[in-house]
Amino acid sequence: MFVLQVSADRIREIYDTPAAEGAEIFRPNGHDIEFEHVSFSYDEKEVLHDVSFTAREGEVTALVGPSSSGKSTCARLAARLWDVSGGTVRVGGVDISTVDPEVLLTDYSMVFQDVVLFDDTVMENIRLGKHGATDQEVLAAAKAANCDEFVRKLPKGYDTPIGENGARLSGGERQRISIARALLKDAPIVLLDEATASLDVENETKVQGALSRLLANKTVLVIAHRMRTVEAADKIVVLADGQVAETGTPAELMAQGGLYRRMVELQQQSTQWSLGCSTLLARE
């Protein structure tokens, strides 16, 4: 009975949630993403407060900060997966709250750590990136994402079913299929929740190579967990407690000696500590 009540409450909550609506035409002047005094609250708790920054077209803008600092929230607001509680998010000068979410998302590609795949073939999972894409287009995207190497070894190649959520594939292989989708879509805005965070060195190298093709000349907003992966970013926005603590290039922030530098140094120290422990265990 308790389970039924919880389910009923959840269904009622979904029905009571207002549908996001907006114009069915989206004609931005470029694809800069601008946060202007943005605030966001969830369950009456303020998650972001007065956040302002701009992710420019043709540049990589990285969001870094401690856990629960608001990085993922910013990415979701940037794509209007959620609506802001205060302030404005604009793309190319257009307030995205005035645009129908489905129309808006045609200009976005998203590559997150948690890849969603379907119990279908490799070919059809990649084709989801672009409705009506030809087999030749799918194959070109797969090769650019470094998928071809492992797909050719599957029993039926690109016609091999991969299981529910890609159960027959490794984490690195699932990530490369996700990148192939994004390459096939070729949207001008890319949201990237560091896709290499849980990969081994070999797979990370392959995924990074695929990402370099995906990100060229786009507006790129990256959620970064490992500081070494954003050393080449054009701009870094450091979030702390839901607010912008620092903004600048990696070199500028290292020179300032603030939160970003402390995070870099702590991660470097933890890496050295791990290596030291491994060496000690090897000697024993």
Question: SSE layout and pairings?
Answer:
Blueprint (H helix, E strand, L loop, with lengths): L1 H15 L16 E10 L2 E11 L4 E5 L6 H8 L7 E6 L2 E2 L5 H4 L3 E4 L10 H6 L7 H10 L3 H4 L19 H15 L3 E5 L7 H15 L3 E5 L11 E6 L2 E6 L1 H7 L2 H25 L1
The best one-word shape is: globular
Radius of gyration: 21 Å
Distance between the termini: 57 Å
What fraction of the residues are assigned to beta strands by DSSP?
A: 15-25%
Mean of the pLDDT scores? 87
Question: Short summary of the structure?
Answer:
Helix content is 38%, strand content 21%. With 284 residues, the protein is of the alpha/beta class. The strands form 2 sheets. A 6-stranded mixed β-sheet has the order 6-7-8-3-9-10, with helices on both faces.
Account of the 3D structure:
Helix 5 (135-144) packs across helix 7 (171-185) and helix 7 (171-185) packs parallel to helix 8. With 284 residues, the chain is an alpha/beta fold. The protein is globular. The chain has helices at residues 2-16, 71-78, 101-104, 122-127, 135-144, 148-151, 171-185, 201-215, 250-256, 259-283, and strands spanning 33-42, 45-55, 60-64, 86-91, 94-95, 108-111, 189-193, 219-223, 235-240, 243-248. The strands form two sheets. A six-stranded mixed sheet has the order 6-7-8-3-9-10, with helices on both faces. A four-stranded antiparallel sheet has the order 2-1-4-5, covered by helices on one side.
